[in-house]
Amino acid sequence: MIQIDNLIKVFGAKRAVDGLSFSVERGEVVGFLGPNGSGKSTTMRMITGYYAPTSGKVSVGGHDVAEAPLAAKRLIGYLPENAAAYPDMSVHGFLAFAAELRGLAGDAKKKAVARVVERCFLESVLHQSIDTLSKGYRHRTCLAQALIHDPEVLVLDEPTDGLDPNQKHEVRNLIKELGRSKAVVFSTHILEEVDAACTRAIIIDRGRIVAQGTPDELGRPLDEVFRRITIPDTAKK
Amino acid sequence: MKPVWVIAKRELGSYFTSPVAYVFLVIFLLLTGFFTFTAGQFFERGEASLGAFFGWHPWLYLVLVPAVGMRLWAEERRAGTLELLMTMPITPWQAILGKFFASWIFLGIALALTFPVVVTVNVLGRPDNGMIFAGYLGSFFLAGAYLAVTCLTSAMTRNQVVAFILSVVTCLFLILVGFNPVTDLLARWASPAFIDTVAAFSVVTHFDGFQKGVIDSRDLLYFLSVIGFSLFATGVVLRNR
């Protein structure tokens, strides 16, 4: 579903993403790991069409993101980093807005909103405005937005960031369940999540893939593997 | 067209869920009242026209329109929602137009709420209502031109204050190139043809016709060009985020 081919993104003098190639099929949950600033978010922003790549190609469901952005974006549900949402809107208003932008109207819109509200446990805050929500609820609201059109591809940038242990557990289970019928990529720097939710992990450092495989293939314990293959910040120039 | 309306609806709603809309409407109406009746000497003029009312609009909008438009894109950048919006299956154009129309409609509502001056002048005398209509139309396009400039400055930054100041300065420039004291100053050394050319870039020059009751297609074209150019430039700025 997601096909990435020699993707490069340069910001000024910095190569944030340096020749990434990988693909994600339906039924896979790919964990995207790497130290801070390794290019995880930049890659996800290129998959979702927010950044234009410096060179290379991304296609989603067979649609080139650069050439047919609307067709590609229709297939994607995206949770951006920090779960951005309009603070002045209510949870319900925000989800209805997202549904309308996805072309849902009338009954289909109502059903879609009801479905994600149930799935992300948002009933209790449905009419609260987003700026009064705790971080966990805001995160789930933004996740609900990503699921509103039942997308075939999910791109989740740190979906468990800022959640409490129970919420983390719920979100991981949700990702696992969604992964059965969709292509899911999510980024994290929590290694236990790889074991808990992924069918495959890709570890990147400074914009390049340094290791990939199933959690078992990568070796154990995971955190030692991670430390060995990614260079700590302090060692970088 | 549908996504344009979805975005416009959200944007318009967000004016009214925050105090911005109410503060703006009250201040706008108080200031138009003050400028028309006190500073504009509406009663002392002894004529049944709204010259005292419309004459102030280029100056009044100079501060108020950037205040309405400054958050349009700067706030999206600051809150990170720009990323959400730009990864939705919509074109940047639909977002730009949606936001622009929402604010323009809001300014139109503010302008419509000045109807008591029309009633007043009709009660007191026999004004030329066609002329008043032309004045309102011109004023609406004037607000649209300032607003489009503000869209552009707002897209450039995540800081609303910077967007506001850049917009005020740009709009001030659009006034001053056709403002009589400034053109008189230029007349000391420049040829009349040069002054006319410079003044043709001014909103004041093109707003004058409307105030006199003349709806000239050249004036309309001028305002539509300013709006079109500014929104196009907004698109370019957003593409190079």
Distance between the amino and carboxyl termini of chain A? 37 Å
Give the strand line-up of the largest sheet of chain A: 6-7-8-3-9-10
Oligomer category: heterodimer
Main sheet: strands, sense, barrel of chain A: 6 strands, mixed
Note the overall shape of chain A. Answer: globular
On the 0 to 100 scale, the average pLDDT of chain A is 88
- Given as residue ranges, the uncertain stretches of chain B (5+ residues, pLDDT < 50) are none
Estimated share of beta-strand residues of chain A: 25-35%
Helix content of chain A: 25-40%
Instruction: Report the count of strand segments of chain A.
Output: 10
Q: Count up the helices of chain B.
A: 15
Alpha carbon gyration radius of chain A? 18 Å
Given helix and strand content, the structural type of chain A is: alpha/beta
- Please summarize the sheet with the most strands of chain B: none
**Could you tell me how far the N terminus lies from the C terminus of chain B, measured between alpha carbons in angstroms?**
24 Å
Average pLDDT of chain B works out at: 90
Instruction: Name the helix and strand elements of chain B from N-terminus to C-terminus, one letter apiece.
Output: HHHHHHHHHHHHHHH
Count the beta strands of chain B. Answer: 0
CA-based shape of chain B: globular
Largest interface (C-beta under 8 Å): A-B, 28 and 20 residues
Element order of chain A: H for helix, E for strand: EEEHEEHEHHHEHEHEEHH
Structure commentary:
The termini of chain A are far apart. The model of chain A has no long low-confidence stretch (mean pLDDT 88). In chain A, 36% of the residues lie in helices and 26% in strands. Chain A has 237 residues and is α/β, with parallel strands linked by helices. By secondary structure, chain B is an all-alpha fold. In chain B, 81% of the residues lie in helices and 0% in strands. Chain B contains 15 helices and no strands. In chain B, α1 (2-17) packs across α8 (92-112), α10 runs antiparallel to α14 (203-211) and α14 packs antiparallel against α15. Chain B is globular and about 55 Å long. Chains A and B meet through α2 and α3 of A and α1 and α7 of B.
